[in-house]
Write a structure and sequence with these properties.
Oligomer: single chain
Radius of gyration: 15 Å
Helix content: over 70%
Order of helices and strands: HHHHHH
Number of helices: 6
Largest sheet: none
Shape: elongated
Number of domains: 1
Number of strands: 0
Amino acid sequence: MSPLSLILGFLPLIAFSVLSGRVADNGAAWAAAVACAIAVVLLVVKWTWPPKMVDAFQALVFGVIAVVGFVGGQDIDAWLFDWAIGLTTLTLGVLILLFLPVMPFTEQYARESVPKQY
């Protein structure tokens, strides 16, 4: 398993955690939009079928947070500023735990490092 591939898989979450700490209007929404864009770029660049569940789930979660952050008012923006990092980490952890009996998320990254036999 390539460590770089695993780190790239979590890059949207890392970018969101760093960018959402800024104090500005729609700060969490902008951070989620950037994280969603990174997740989508990773999905396109590493195009495999089926897509890695962590990449796809991050794109979905950050897209929802961005839309809610931009559409919601000041109260939603303040709530996202306080709770969005924990919410995304919690949802990602729940996803990993739910898929653990079916397929550990690291299995998808391990499979890409195995050379194909023809």
